[in-house]
Amino acid sequence: MIDLHFKVFRFDPQADPGPYFKHYTVKAEPGERLLDSLNRIKWEQDGTLSYRMSCAHGVCGSDGMKINGTCRLACQAIVKDYQCPEVVLEPLPGFEVLKDLVVDIDPFLERIQNLRPFLIASAPPEKERKQTQAEGKKVEEAIRCILCACCTASCPVSWIQKKYIGPAALVWAFRYIFESRDSDLQERLKQIDHPDGAWGCVNHFECTRVCPKEIPVTKSINTIKREIERRLR
Ligand code: SF4
Ligand code: FES
Asked: Which of 10, 11, 63, 119 is deepest in the core (most CB within 10 A)?
């Protein structure tokens, strides 16, 4: 067991005059995840600390946060990689803080919902619509998205261009644009053919660097741009 020192962003907008940092020290095994330490802080030291978590295994996407300056999942950050003087935990940048490390992700999800993230058929299918392995391969990376929001929170364009749809939404757009069983390609492309859509991306690549599912986010956005040029111009 080692002593792990944390500096954690705290802010309750309904009670605090402003944000502040609180320090904690917990015992941790080198092979544990930072989420285990966070749980220990909450369960053994300070029950008022708020953060999201559920699966603890990189599946649900709920514990995205800024850890020592990089957005990532606390359940995928291993203690031995953080034996620095202090582990700084902050909420996802660019999102409204609801309390401590919990941010409002409703606007983030609404942007994806507006893209109609489901298959659209031109007519009710009479039989099962099959997909070849090659067709499935085109979207197999995008399908891995767990909506953790780390990409959008790390995107410098999203910080300043508030209407920019953001990299995560564009991954979901990609998933249906290149889906062989979907029938709404033209509309899907038109929906993101504007400066706050696919053209908002200027290739910072921060989204690609932080994606816990190793989705080639920037490359996917550039592929969408080429598809817009090919099909709508
Ligand atoms: Fe998270 Fe990656 Fe999906 Fe972005 S693309 S929301 S970083 S899983
Ligand atoms: Fe589910 Fe980390 S708690 S992804």
From this structure: 63
Residue nearest to atom 3 of ligand 1 (CA): 145
> Longest Cα pair distance anywhere in the chain, in angstroms?
62
Separation between Cα atoms, residue 233 and residue 72, nearest integer Å: 38
Look up the pTM and report it: 0.96
DSSP-derived pairing of the beta strands 2-10 and 87-90: parallel
Mean pLDDT of 101-108: 98
Judged by its nearest atom, the ligand closest to the C-alpha of residue 57 is 2
The crossing angle, in degrees rounded to 10, of helices 167-177 and 106-114 is 20
Q: Given the CA of residue 54, which atom of ligand 2 is nearest to it?
A: 3
Q: Is 98 helix (H, G, I), strand (E, B) or coil?
A: strand
